[in-house]
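Hi P.,

Sorry for the delay on this. The queue was packed all week, but I finally got your sequence through. Input first:
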Amino acid sequence: MSDFLPHPFWNFSLELYAGDGVAEACLDLQERRGCDVNVLLFCCWLGASGRPTLTADRLRVILKASDAWQADVVRPLRQMRRLLKDRPWPQALPETVEAVRRRVADAELAAEHAEQLELASLHAPPADRDRPIEKRMRAAVGNLGVYAVCLGVVPDARDRAVVVTLMKATFPSLLDEEITCVVGGTPVLA
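Then the structure:
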């Protein structure tokens, strides 16, 4: 959307989310584990850009801010969008309901964008694009592991498969075996 403030995290998120299986993976974690998709993307972005792994204390501070925004703004918009899509509205013209649903979806996307800008403002140590890609991937997986700890989630095989999908899209130049080895050997986000 052209009226959104540009930001490297937002640009990264748009590209990553469009990657093969990423939207489904993120939504799976959102539905099954209560993850915030923006925080998942943030964990990936921090690692991909060569930033150090988050500490649990730092992530808890970040989550406190994003949880409030999600609860007060994003989730109500998401619920309204789904209600408009899933419930019949016989009193209204279908095209009118669809127009309203699209406007709510646009507001939801704007709220997601605002959350991403907030996340980046709360924690953006300098990037190090010269950091070896394997270390950047380990940092991204580590960030997701810290997020799992903060959520009190014990990852299972399905969670690891989802994280592999995220890492393949985040680091497409790495071999599947490299990614699977790191994800399989490290507690990662559920």
